[in-house]
Amino acid sequence: MNKITLSKYKKLYFDPKKCIPGEHHFVAVYLLSKIKEIPDYVNPDGMKGSLQGDIGFGNNTFSIEVKLGKKNSMSSISFTASQYEKWFIKSEDKDIPNYLIVLLKDSFFIIKFPLFVEKYKGIYKSEIKEFKNKNGKKKNSPNFNEDCIQTCCAKSNERFDIEDEDGITKRFQELNKEIENVY
After folding, report:
1. Residue pLDDT, tens place only, 50-94
2. Three-class SS of residue 7?
3. Fewer CB within 10 A of the end CB, N or C, for the chain?
4. pTM of the model
5. Cα–Cα–Cα angle for 54, 26, 21, nearest 5°?
6. Sequence-ordered alpha helix ranges (H) in 50-164
């Protein structure tokens, strides 16, 4: 299988006015081509239970959560109500995936997720609460726009322009070393 660049992936599959493929497509076509190890699970939506994140390694000792920008603008992400409650309100390190990978319109992030949550909580402390609709049911988290995500990155090497294939490749090499250490 040929490796695909992020810019090529976006050119082939993204038209925000018509259709943006979902996280499963992004993981299958792009991300798995960048990760050396075969994951124990990929995107177990609806059956996660105690599993953290969308991609898991080493009997769930290392995991990655994947988020794509919301349809239309592709400029923000949100978390489900249960993800937001578990990772941002209650947030025990053992429950937070190791990494968060985000694809927005013009940016790509590979972030150490526990450090991101810690920094987010420090900056937006007063805004962290459970979100409910008029009927009292939990609803998704607030939107995390690019500025918020950038501000909460722990390191400068966590955000990339879509065209920065060298930087993205180098960051995936670092991520792959961490995944290899799980086994």
Report:
1. 678 899 999 889 999 999 887 667 788 888 888 888 888 887 767
2. helix
3. N
4. 0.87
5. 115
6. 81-84, 113-123, 146-152
